[in-house]
Amino acid sequence: MINSEQIAQVFEYLNKRDECPTDNEYDGRMGARISSIFVIMVTSAIGTLLPLLSSRYSFIRLPPIVFFICKFFGSGVIVATAFIHLLEPASDALSDDCLTGPITEYPWAFGICLMTLFLLFFFELVAYQMIDRKISKESNLENGNGAHTHSHFGDESMYTKKVKDEKLKKLEDDEDDEADEIRSQDSHAENKLNPYPSHFAHAAEHQDPSVMGTPVNDQSKEQYYGQLLNVFVLEFGVMFHSVFIGLSLAVSGEEFKSLYIVLVFHQMFEGLGLGTRIATTDWSRHRFTPWILAIAYTLCTPIAIAIGLGVRESYPPGSRRSLITNGVFDSISAGILVYTGIVELMAHEFLYSGEFKGPNGFKRMLWAYFVMCWGAGLMALLGKWA
Questions:
Q1: CA triplet 81, 86, 92: central angle to 5 degrees?
Q2: Nearest Cα to 302, choosing from 253, 254, 262, 249?
Q3: Spatial distance between the Cα atoms of 251 and 245, rounded to a whole number of angstroms
Q4: pLDDT averages per 10-residue partition of the chain, 386 residues
Q5: Residues 386, 377: Cα–Cα separation, whole Å
Q6: What dihedral do alpha carbons 353, 358, 360, 362 form, nearest 10°?
Q7: Residues 300, 72: contact at Cβ < 8 Å?
Q8: Less Cβ around it within 10 Å: N or C end of the chain?
Q9: What is residue 146's DSSP assignment?
């Protein structure tokens, strides 16, 4: 039974809807706003295309140390973007004073971010299982439905040891001295064996026959497809965010000048993080895809600015619909970048890859860590203005 108090709450909610601004703070300066389309396009292109061009063409080849810095600086930028430039604005938008009803009764920005994180993890689990089945099926077809049917997610020691033993047996039949040398080398290698194998990857001593001679080279197919999946997820999260900041810049008011300057660096740094990940992925089977991804990021914010200028008289960034839309999509993007940043760019790169193995591995790891902190700190500082 509906009582008078509930009816009063409904009318209060309907009246409250009009309290959200229905206009924007656009104050002219059309020339500067149009210039932002091209300036941000250029800086975004520098961030995404420079690492890609450097990895493809020798005449602009960057020194290894520069690429190293760009890679881990970009990782820090992406992690900071998730928390400072996405999650915090999403929380502000979904808790705005002009909003009422269920949207204000729960910290939805953090809830949506959390749900996105777990959904993304679930989808990645499913994707890797599908990839594993596909690779196993291809392997069975190529090897006569009998050979090499082990699980790609199983215990590596069960089959790496078998391969080594077969190698030793063959050498023992030929020359005992060579067999002793191989035993010594294998024993030394096992002592240094990484206790954390690469993410969904085979051990270095074993490689599928179906992988031999393919563009994947020494990477396992799981790791290869996993890298592709991670790059696409990262691109998706970054582009979501870039569209909304372009719209906001187009209709901003007094803060336009500071927002313009900050977004120039914001898009370049964010593009650098995305561009280095695209450049370090093997695209030999999809040679046009990295260029499409880089160009898509380069164009998304300028196109959003142009659209914002086109609807500058009618687009209200502070309206109820805009606040909820921006808040929800920023929360989703935050969840994507939190997952990608923490799992793929931090844990995987520092703990589960072989990049920091060897005599100077720990020193290189510390350098990478401090460069990443530098990127995160600089991007977090930009959050003071945008």
A1: 140
A2: 249
A3: 10
A4: 59 54 70 91 92 82 84 90 91 86 87 93 86 76 55 44 51 52 48 41 40 45 74 85 84 80 88 87 83 93 90 76 87 91 86 82 92 93 82
A5: 14
A6: 50
A7: no
A8: N
A9: T
The pLDDT of residue 115 is 95
90, 21, 22, 31: which is closest to 260 by C-alpha?
31
Q: What is the pLDDT of residue 9?
A: 58
Residue 243 to residues 78, 139, 144, 246, 280: CA-CA distances in angstroms? 16, 42, 50, 5, 25
CA angle 326, 332, 336 (to 5 degrees): 140
Write the single-letter amino acid at 13. Answer: Y
Fill in the amino acid letter for 190. Answer: E
Structure tokens at 24: 């924007």
Burial status of residue 298 (CB atoms within 10 A of its CB: 0-12, 13-18, 19 or more): buried
Structure-token pair, residue 74: 């970009």
* CB distance 70 to 293 below 8 Å: no
Return the axis-axis angle of helices 64-80 and 30-56, rounded to nearest 10°.
Answer: 130
* CB atoms near residue 166 (< 10 Å): 10
| Alpha helices (H) in 251-313, listed in sequence order | 256-279, 289-310
Q: How many CB atoms lie within 10 A of CB 67?
A: 17
End-to-end CA distance of the chain: 48
Q: Measure the CA dihedral 325/329/330/335, to 10°.
A: 150
